[in-house]
Design a protein that fits this description.
The chain has helices at 3-6, 71-85, 101-106, 122-131, 133-136, 151-156, 182-191, 209-222, 261-265, 272-277, 283-291; strands at residues 11-12, 15-18, 28-40, 45-51, 56-60, 63-67, 91-96, 114-119, 144-148, 162-168, 192-201, 225-232, 240-247. The chain has 292 residues and is α/β, with parallel strands linked by helices.
Length: 292
């Protein structure tokens, strides 16, 4: 069977359109140059495209996960907000994130001694290493250990282990669904060392207010300090994505460490000012978070 025969039926006249019941009536369309990879793993459909104007694009089960054009906005904010909120993050766990982008960013912190990544779908890592070298470079860091496992089960077996846990999940369907449940957040809390931080991908306050409300409520129930930030990502439906954080020791909305000039020079989105500003929400979203 050829790659063309495996290409999703969402490509029409050379345009890929992301449509989903999770955001009815709206779509993001991106012009495709060619299909580089299209296969179904045991967990999900994996597609990798060369686009006309946005570089390479990874799609899982028909949902855009990243493009070369704006992936840095997602990776930097989801990684560096919790990492800089902690004064000395030494042991870090990334759940999901098989493209390697989050571990690439975490590895920039010289305080880090070890990085575990727990990805349920090994095929995502393989595809990233083959087609997304700018993302998968993180796997080359000697501090990184890869675990092919269910993230929910993995955290249960590592109590009081990590300073920072970052959950880079897909949307709450399929293999990523459990990562949005309160029971998983409670497992994550137990896997943290004293004063550790948990950060999770937290959907869109425009498109998924009910899901955002649930995520925030779970964090409030479990942690002394909590907060909801967001990052702008043009190729995500809705144009942004949320980040929800919890800690019993540190306020996630404020950096605990300075960003050196050398470190800052290697970033394209994150800085200390946008760290703090990303927690300032539109009035309707602020009300949603406050009343959750």
């Amino acid at each position: 069977m050829t790659i063309e025969q495996l290409t999703p039926d969402k490509i029409i006249n050379g345009w890929f359109s992301e449509t989903s019941d999770m955001w009815p009536g709206i779509a993001v369309s991106i012009e495709i140059e060619k299909t580089l990879f299209s296969r179904k793993s045991i967990f999900q459909q994996i597609d990798l495209f060369e686009t006309k104007h946005h570089g390479r694009m990874l799609v899982l089960d028909g949902i855009i996960q990243l493009t070369d054009f704006d992936e840095f906005a997602y990776q930097e904010m989801l990684a560096h907000i919790p990492m800089f909120a902690h004064p000395l993050p030494e042991k870090v766990l990334v759940v999901g994130g098989g493209d390697g982008g989050i571990i690439r960013e975490v590895a920039k912190h010289d305080t880090v001694l070890s990085i575990d990544i727990c990805e349920i779908d090994e095929r995502v890592i393989q595809v990233s290493k083959e087609f997304l070298p700018g993302m998968s470079t993180g796997f080359n860091d000697p501090r990184v250990t890869v675990h092919i496992a269910d993230g929910s089960e993995f955290v249960q077996h590592h109590p009081a282990t990590y300073d920072v846990i970052i959950v880079d999940s897909s949307d709450p369907v399929g293999p990523g669904e459990i990562l949005f449940e309160k029971i998983f957040y409670s497992y994550g809390k137990r896997a943290l060392r004293d004063n550790g931080l948990l950060a999770v991908q937290a959907e869109s306050f425009f498109l998924h207010p009910d899901k955002v409300e649930k995520i925030v409520k779970n964090m409030k129930d479990l942690f002394v300090h909590h907060g909801y930030a967001y990052s702008l990502i043009p190729t995500f439906t809705g144009g942004h994505v949320g980040i929800c954080l919890g800690s019993d020791g540190y306020d996630p909305s404020r950096p605990s460490r300075a960003v050196s000039k050398q470190f800052q020079a290697g970033l394209r989105y994150y800085n200390p000012e946008i760290h703090k500003a990303s927690f300032v929400l539109p009035r309707f979203a602020e009300k949603l978070i406050r009343e959750a």
